């Protein structure tokens, strides 16, 4: 099944691309969520008319992503967490915790864009990659410190 993407999907393509997908994926997921439309002759002519607007929108989104990458690169997040012996944490630090601390710094990042192979479970400094979008990635420094005793 051939579809025209209405939004950029990381694993499939960018907005305006004509892609070939399995029938079930297109019929049951992409079309009902309005992420794509069938690649009919009428939809292709509509795509050609809107091509300039799509290119302009992609450029502005790419510029926003580059600006965000500049803000994120080199950012340091300090998280105080309860810890026990051997610098091990009670619990763990997840991407949601990191996203919350970034939001406190004024950097809004979706927790799904923070790439943690597994939650952080020890004290110390960790470099964490962040997928910004448009194949742009940045790294932030996450420092886990022991929570001060009350």
Helix percent band = 25-40%
**Number of separate strands:** 8
Mean pLDDT comes to 89
Provide the CATH architecture of the largest domain.
Answer: Roll
**At the third CATH level, what is the topology name of the largest domain?**
Ribosomal Protein L9, domain 2
The structural domain count equals: 2
The CATH class of the largest domain: Alpha Beta
Q: By helix and strand content, what is the structural category?
A: alpha+beta
Largest sheet: 3 strands, antiparallel
The ordered string of helix (H) and strand (E) elements is EEHEHEEHEEE
**Total of helices:** 3
Strand order of the largest sheet: 2-1-3
How far from one another are the termini?
62 Å
Q: Can you say what the CATH homologous superfamily of the largest domain is? A: Ribosomal protein L9, C-terminal domain
